[in-house]
# Entry
Amino acid sequence: MNGAFDLTGKVALVTGANTGIGQGIAVALAQAGADVALVARRDPAETKKLVEEAGVRAHVVMADLSSIEPCERIVEDVVAALGRIDILVNNAGIIRRTDALDFSEEDWDAVMEVNLKVLFFLSQSVARHMTGWASQSGERGKIINIASMLTFQGGIRVPSYTASKSGVGGLTKLMANEWALKGINTNAIAPGYIATNNTEALQADETRNRQILERIPEGRWGDPADIGGAAVFLASRASDYVQGHILAVDGGWLAR
Ligand code: NAP
# Structure
């Protein structure tokens, strides 16, 4: 691949890379030429195989992102194995569904920790590494946060998820504000309704499934591969003047 979207020689780090959107993004970045570090708490063997089939290097880092403890170690491990980190995709995330009246502190803390706190502190660790080379070399680091429709909307029965993903929108802008002049672009992708483990309960609920499909102009659930093109754009030189943007990839959901 040549031109502004080419990622040949770049190194990407993708969290939650064993399934779903993380796998779709890792494969798309690999097909655009990037070596990919796969961070997961379960062996991402399938993603590793798909990345290597694209003709680039895959490096697995096993880590549980339910606390910030592994953040520094992940960066050191990836830099030692692949040389440096050009692209960070903060994709790992969880969701807990319960009526707001009954929602527990445990479900609040668990979701906020993975979706928001670890996203920030891993970004901080990677940004400290990127600022070591980015502004002097003229090359730019790229941070891509995975937001949600609930970065824009309230949602139902998912209070900690809505709080965390609204927070991701705010942090994306803060990071852009602070790190743009240090050679880093920070943006987010807000996936619409994508068929993954995260949305299994919605897909299985006949009424919610029908209501969701009726509102999507594209008339179908998204596939993890649908997110890949946006990730390649935000990881590449083509997006060097894009900062703090939350790019919806939603089959038109928000247009409705
Ligand atoms: P998914 O298949 O469940 O993927 C979530 C990934 O995060 C999995 O790889 C999961 O690993 C990983 N993860 C969760 N907790 C972790 C932890 N403590 N340590 C390490 N890894 C952890 O669902 P998905 O839909 O692809 O979700 C990916 C991202 O997209 C999430 O941030 C989600 O909020 C966001 N999103 C999804 C949709 C959608 O419609 N699907 C829409 C908007 C945003 P395990 O497999 O080990 O659990």
